[in-house]
Every structure is written in C-alpha cells, then in structure tokens.
Amino acid sequence: MQEVSIFWFRRDLRIEDNHGLWAALRGDQPVLPVFIFDTDILSRLPDTSDGRVEFIHQAISKLKLAIQARGGDLCVLHAKPLDAFKELSTRFKIAAIHCNADYEKYGCVRDESIRAWADANQIDFYSYKDQVVFEKSEVLSGQGTPYTVFTPYSRKWKEQLRIQPIQQFPSETIEHYAPGSFELPSLASLGFRPSGLTFPAAQVADTLIQHYGEKRDFPALPGTSRLSVHLRFGTISIRSLVLQAVGKSEVWLNELIWRDFYFNILHHFSHVSEGHAFRKEYDRMDWRNNETEFEAWKQGQTGYPIVDAGMRELNATGFMHNRVRMIVASFLVKHLLIDWRWGEAYFAAKLLDFDFAANNGGWQWAAGSGCDAAPYFRVFNPALQTKKFDGELTYIRHWVPEFQELTYPQPIVNHEFARERVLAAYKKALAKV
275-431: what fold? Predict the structure, then answer.
C-alpha cells in the first residue's frame, strides 16, 4: 500500500493560506487530501434543500479542481468520520493525519475519537490553529484569566497582534500530493437537492471596508461584506482578512475580533455548549414560550415590519443583516418572552453562516444572559429602530411590500405592554435565591 499523510479538510475549504495543509505538504509523505460528508451531522438536517450542504459541495468541487491542478486529488467520503478513517486505512498506509482545530463541542469530541484511533494504530495526529487568529489561552488578562468583556479583550488582542504579527502559510505553492483519482459524490447521492440560494463572493473590496463603519447598520445599503459564510466554512483565510482590514477600518477589524472572542468564551466556559446561559442566574427565567407567537415570528407575521422583514430575508436567503438580527432576537426574547434557545435553534437551522460560537453569543447578548451582553432592561423599540436604520423604509418595502395593506397583521403585542411584562419577568427571575 502507498504510504501517505492525510490532510483532513473541515472548516478550511481552500488551498490558499491553510495552516494544516501547509504543514502536511512540507512533511516526508505525499499528502492525500480528504473531505468527509459526516453522516452524524447530515442526518440531523431536516431540510433536504439545506443551502449549507450545497455551499460545501460547490466549495469542495472547486477544491478538488485546485488539487488536481497540483498533481493530486481530493478523496470525498460520505460516512461517520471514524468509519471513513478505518476504510482509508485498508487502502493506504497512513503515516499521519493532519487537520485544523475545531472548537465546537461536537468537533472536539469527534477529533478526540479520531486521535485515540490514530494512537492505537501508531498513526501520528496533528492539529493546527487556522480558523482564528488567537485561540484558547493566547489572549488572557493580566491576572491570567479569560476575558468576558469584549472591549478589554479586543485591546489585548491588538496588543498581542503587535507582539506576534500574523504569519501566513503559502500552502498553495507546494505540490506534494499523492497521485490518485476519486469520484465526487453528487448532491443527490448525499440525500440533498439544490437550494436555489445565491451565495456571495469570497472577497471584499477595500472601499467597502473603509466605509463599513458608516454604512454597516443600514440594512438597505450594500454596506456589509457578506463574508460570514466563507469564514464559517473556511473558503477564505481569517489571516488574509485581518491583514486587509488593518489600517482601513477599526470597526471592521473589531467584527473579526468578535469571532475570536466568542471562540474564546466557548473554550473557557463550556457550559454555554450545554444549553446554559453564560450567566447561570438567567436560567431561572420563566418563559411564556407561546408556540403560535413563535410561529408568527418565524414566518415574519408579527405585525412589526422591521422584524418581519428580517425573518423573511432569513427564510428566503439564509442571511440576515446584523443590525436586524439584533432587532428580531430582542423582539423574540423581550416582546414575546420566548426562550432565547428557541431562536438560537431556528437561526442554527436557517443561517448559511451558522456558527455555534457566534450564534450562541449573539442570542445570549440579546437576552442579557451572555458575556458583555446588552443589559436585560434594554428593550429595542422596533419603531425607533426602523426610524433610525431604515428611515426611508427601503428594506421593509423590499421584504414586506404589503405592510401598509389591510391584509398585513396587526402587531402581535403592544410594545409598552411587552416592555413592562419582560422587565417584571427578569426582575422576578433574578431575585430568586
């Protein structure tokens, strides 16, 4: 059997500036690139037209062509990861497995199981930092503790960047692949079908970055990069984006730092991965959890146009503007008194850029239960948010064209009533011993 090192693609679907791939290609054995359509993950997706699977399929199709141009090929499997590696070991003599680190609970457990199997079979297992700039305990306070507030974390992050400048990994320049030819499973053979969604480009113009701070809060403007899905699946390097941002926009750079911050929280405070509020006293909340109202929120039928526009954008495109994400999340939790975990799960099912760390962090921010969260007594007024960020109603008219018609529903709840109700509920919960 041919001796190879395996590079296992996961959240890093690119040839360029790929840390783990670069390390594997510089090793002694030729590299067999592998991607696994994980049946443990796919089996939990109820929608057979899930756009994320289609996005991944398109990304690995491009990846396969790039590797073929360099003398190798991408081996794509559809299986449980451990079963996939056991099957590969019957076809190749595996000297090592290289991959880039994952920080989510499922990914960590999965990787430990593969590492244990590799150890038992005298196969080296290597993991590298790639999807973040600073990980785990690389950015700590002066007391050696993890940050739970973003602003001091970001200051220390930037200080760390000056001490430890970004190193890129020119993996695209090395051609040390194992020869071979493998078929790419079709989307249909995976049990999925085209979503009909349009995916954004994997680059951002310098001019957009330079004007990001002044335009980012207005959903009717093309003021955001739409790169979140590419960051989620690693079709673009976080290091290249940080280098592009430095000196052009502190605001845009801070958005990239927020990603690292939420991964930092995930690493140091594992209870957030287990369905708990970051601030555990918020687990005492008594939620109304009215399923009829939740359905109205999901379908964009609350009678609040800015909320309904956001939900319809999400349902139609798999994307929602970040300012609107805050508005719809605040509305679900504070106007309807529905558990933030219900909203978190719905976003997890619908967002193309779904990333557990950021999604959990964002929902807990809205609920007041997270690190560096909006205080529980801050209740967004949808009318004021509309006036401030969609004053011409351009965004609303696009997604809710009937909002001035008699057919449009009346508001599902009165704002002032909802505000008083949620403040009383929070005070009651936080007063419990």
Answer: DNA Cyclobutane Dipyrimidine Photolyase, subunit A; domain 3 (1.10.579)
